[in-house]
Amino acid sequence: MQTVVVGASGTTPEDVIAVARDGARVELSADALAAVGAARRFIDELAAKPDPVYGVSTGFGALAVRHISPSLRAQLQRNIVRSHAAGMGPRVEREVVRALMFLRLKTVASGRTGVRPEVVRTMADVLNAGITPVVHEYGSLGCSGDLAPLSHCALTLMGEGEAEGPDGEVRDAGELLAEHGIAPVELREKEGLALLNGTDGMLGMLLMACADLGRLFTSADITAALSLEALLGTDRVLAPELHAIRPHPGQAAAAANMLKVLEGSQLTGHHQDDAPRVQDAYSVRCAPQVAGAGRDTLAHARTVAERELAAAVDNPVVLPDGRVESNGNFHGAPVAYVLDFLAIATADLASIAERRTDRLLDKNRSHGLPPFLAGDAGVDSGLMIAQYTQAALVSELKRLAVPASADSIPSSAMQEDHVSMGWSAARKLRTAVDNLTRVVAVELYAAARAVELRAEAGLTPGAASRAVVRALREAGVQGPGEDRFLAPDLAAAERFVRDGLLVAAVESEVGELA
């Protein structure tokens, strides 16, 4: 099993995904534990002084005006966790919670939050034991951190609340800790606050979305090329010199991918045959421009995610010289904006893919393909309703593209009077990514069938297209023929895209795609 080391060398997006999705083990480096211990000494010194310090010897939020006596400080830290673990709604996915926990561990191990080394070790132990706190859908405003989600995780460290064991069963968190020999944490000054105050949930979801969208943009380049091929379009619009004069890097990469897929095809270049076309429709001709703009949006989002990954988000924060300073770094705006930006790019990529699918099914625009790619049109309906499903997904994607970060609801008696709604932006982006996967799968299903029908008519598709069709059939997706129960085929096509088999099939013929 892979091991991810948390320490001075920094954390990569791949580290987060390995822990979140693949169950990689976490190991704390000696330098991380030393930094944690040094920062804690500063907190202990402040706690011993009579002066009030936010998070150490005061209440929280709008209640920060009260000075808390030493005898009540352990209770203060327990109480903030218990009271803030106020989430509601469905459970959040296991991979999201593991990303949330790991990213919070990464921050507290930075030596900027002031927790004790035993807290950091317990966080790592819980992750390595496969114990996943129950976190709920609603409870974060994306400011002052993902408060409720992180509180539910902190509650598990205290041995309270519910958590999912490595067997998938939800049980009492204290029982799970005991079974794995993990002692519950007794929180001291600053520690409850430090466990709650970060953008870890929205960042974890952003990192996973970036990984998924990277695969999906490549997948969409492939399906766009297959649709162009099936529609007997021209590949001349993909020439590198055309994209060099509008030098957006994503556009050039998308066009290059499509050219690789179309290499050796006998289907391209027939746009001047029976029904001459000067140009292909926008959904075909402008595929690199739309997918390329999405790729460039993704590149920007990755830059923001990497900056956030290098951050230590807490309030107050322990600086290297020992000062403990209040700040606003917990505000989720930088992450929230790119989450919303990606939702827009996701919706538009799905929209252009659906237009190509519709063109493949319309006998008036498909240049000789049978209506709805049906075996016996009229008796058979072919893929008519597959496009309905695709259209429904695209319609929802457009609703999901409405920005969450443009909203703000004041909280904490107007002390926290502007919030990012970044958690909400992340949650809807996850849905959008799932929907885009399905939209691309429907285009793949239609385009592959159309390419096969062209082959039956004597036109040989390119090697990459043949590899895709062959792999699809091996994955259980059936080819042209009479009507049948379509949902299993579409589900298999979705898995084919989601698991990266589409990209792998093409790369087996043409080499690595961008």
UniProtKB/TrEMBL annotation:
Compartments, record wording: Cytoplasm
One Pfam short name: Lyase_aromatic
GO terms for cellular component: cytoplasm
Descriptive protein name: Histidine ammonia-lyase
Enzyme Commission numbers on file: 4.3.1.3
A GO MF label: histidine ammonia-lyase activity
One GO term of the biological process aspect: L-histidine catabolic process
Keywords: Cytoplasm, Histidine metabolism, Lyase
Family: Belongs to the PAL/histidase family.
Covalent crosslink: 5-imidazolinone (Ala-Gly): 143-145
Chemical reaction(s) catalysed: L-histidine = trans-urocanate + NH4(+)
Chief localisation class: cytoplasm
Pathways per UniProt: Amino-acid degradation; L-histidine degradation into L-glutamate; N-formimidoyl-L-glutamate from L-histidine: step 1/3
Posttranslational mods: Contains an active site 4-methylidene-imidazol-5-one (MIO), which is formed autocatalytically by cyclization and dehydration of residues Cys-Ser-Gly.
Keyword Heme: no
Keyword Lyase: yes
Modified residues (2,3-didehydroalanine (Ser)): 144
Gene3D superfamilies tied to this protein: Fumarase/aspartase (Central domain), Fumarase/aspartase (N-terminal domain)
PROSITE patterns: PAL_HISTIDASE
Superkingdom of this protein's organism: Bacteria
